[in-house]
């Protein structure tokens, strides 16, 4: 059409897609590639029936490809609040770029890839001597940097029954400064999985910490007096973290131990690394 | 890829689109056109982040093109209830094919085209001697017949401040059996517009009927004794309808009148056409 209009320069070739077949965005983008110069749409796809094409997604698709759409989405949640207030229709949790869940990974493999992508992004930024926000964005599963939209990274990795050790370890490290060795991550992931399978709900970092403490720091009452428990504990490995929350300034020791044929993990908290080590040993004896 | 795989017959070429750029559906459809033979998705597009591609929309896009997807969507709202219950995430009002608003036209021009499309569909069905459900579907703005999904036509035309005379007339005709002549439709649309502009809300057929009665059947108290009101009424035209609700079995007369330089419409209801005519004339005198 673009090539066959007689006085092409005298018309504005415009497309007006609705989303009835779920293809409004692709329709607009392919039309522009075919020569259209205007797209008629609505913010976040409001409009008759399934809505007019979402101009926010169109703009942010450009942004994700390195083209400046010249629209300010640096606080997308504020735009969303105004639109929801004006339209009296909520935006869906999975709406591209703006929904509550769209930067969130629950799946273990996704979390793992995203955590590695974040680390790589930081490494490349440091290597190039640029701010992280200035570096080209190339993190798996996230088409844009959530920070470009005024979002934080808090929402990116969340844990439910589909998550694995990666997400759990990430949350404990990010929220509490607690680094878990890989074999303990595997052990603790089973504990969390039992919990999420039973509860069927997402777990936040607080809950993870509560589960961790209950599992690896058994209270005195948990001790029993069977003869096996009296065997000597043999420490196999020990890992220490400086806790940043909820008990900032204290230390955590995680202790891998063997007692006869039995092996396991225990943990302890203290005002110094030594004190944390002793608490971890005491916890191991109570196991 | 499809053409360049060495042992093409030994692999299942499968795509797994998510909707991060709002293009999951188009991605799957173009992939299948390019030779893919499997699409991995979720019902109504649930799944990590923006969700996996919506297999219901993919299937119903095929249905809309005359290809049987061999999935039973004859009661799509029941499927939706199960999915919402299982996922604990509501489906958006504008989600293709299944959202609450996706078969609904508020816009006057859309309503007009849909009402004409409905009439044409009935006419072609009658002409061909087929049931309406057996005739190819070709109604503007509605990619599929809502009845194919277990939906009724009640939701198709609804009235708010963006609607015109067509939707108003359609609702009064469909719900109350009341046929309004075109010039009265224009007059009444102004009354409805004043109401929707003030209230900012959708109006249902009941409200339209209440507005209609208040406007064209003024109560006795509305009469005044200025000399102009005493002039003789000259009837210009008269239209009668058999009311189907809320007063089934009664008749409505709408009367176009002139009194000096003044022109207007009045209406009356009666147990017979004559009685309705008299009531309309009395209402005109009270104007």
UniProtKB/TrEMBL annotation, chains A, B:
Organism per entry: Gordonia sihwensis NBRC 108236
Protein origin, superkingdom: Bacteria
* Family statement: Belongs to the alpha-IPM synthase/homocitrate synthase family. LeuA type 2 subfamily.
Asked if the keyword Transferase belongs to this entry, the reply reads yes
Q: What is its EC number?
A: 2.3.3.13
Annotated Pyruvate carboxyltransferase domain residues: 1-77
State the name under which the record lists this protein: 2-isopropylmalate synthase
Q: Key word Transmembrane helix present in the record?
A: no
Gene this chain is encoded by? leuA
Region of interest (Disordered), ranges = 265-287
Q: Which reaction does it catalyse?
A: 3-methyl-2-oxobutanoate + acetyl-CoA + H2O = (2S)-2-isopropylmalate + CoA + H(+)
GO: which molecular function terms? Answer: 2-isopropylmalate synthase activity
Q: Name one GO biological process term.
A: carboxylic acid metabolic process
List the lineage, top down.
Bacteria, Bacillati, Actinomycetota, Actinomycetes, Mycobacteriales
**What keywords are annotated for this sequence in UniProt?**
Transferase
């Amino acid at each position: 059409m673009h090539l066959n209009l007689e006085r092409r320069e005298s018309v504005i070739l415009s497309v007006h897609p609705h989303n009835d077949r779920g293809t409004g965005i692709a329709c607009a983008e392919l039309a522009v590639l075919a020569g259209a110069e205007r797209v008629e749409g609505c913010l976040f796809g409001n409009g008759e029936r399934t809505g007019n094409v979402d101009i926010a997604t169109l703009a942010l698709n450009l942004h994700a490809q390195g083209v400046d759409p010249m629209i300010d989405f640096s606080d997308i949640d504020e735009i969303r609040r105004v639109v929801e207030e004006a339209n009296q229709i909520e935006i869906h949790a999975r709406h591209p770029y703006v929904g509550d869940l769209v930067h969130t990974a629950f799946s273990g493999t996704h979390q793992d890839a995203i955590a590695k992508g974040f680390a790589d992004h930081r490494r490349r930024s440091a290597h190039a001597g640029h701010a992280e926000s200035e570096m080209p964005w190339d993190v798996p599963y996230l088409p844009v940097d959530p920070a470009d939209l005024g979002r934080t990274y808090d929402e990116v990795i969340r844990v439910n029954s589909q998550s694995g050790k990666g997400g759990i370890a990430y949350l404990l490290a990010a929220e509490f400064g607690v680094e878990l060795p890989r074999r303990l991550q595997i052990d603790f992931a089973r504990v969390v999985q039992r919990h999420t399978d039973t509860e069927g709900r997402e777990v936040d970092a607080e809950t993870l910490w509560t589960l961790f403490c209950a599992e690896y720091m058994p209270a005195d009452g948990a001790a029993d007096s069977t003869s096996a428990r009296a065997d000597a504990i043999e420490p196999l490995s020990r890992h220490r973290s400086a806790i940043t929350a909820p008990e900032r300034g204290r230390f955590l020791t995680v202790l891998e131990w063997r007692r006869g044929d039995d092996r396991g993990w225990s943990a302890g908290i203290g005002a110094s690394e030594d004190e944390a080590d002793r608490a971890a040993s005491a916890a191991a004896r109570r196991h």
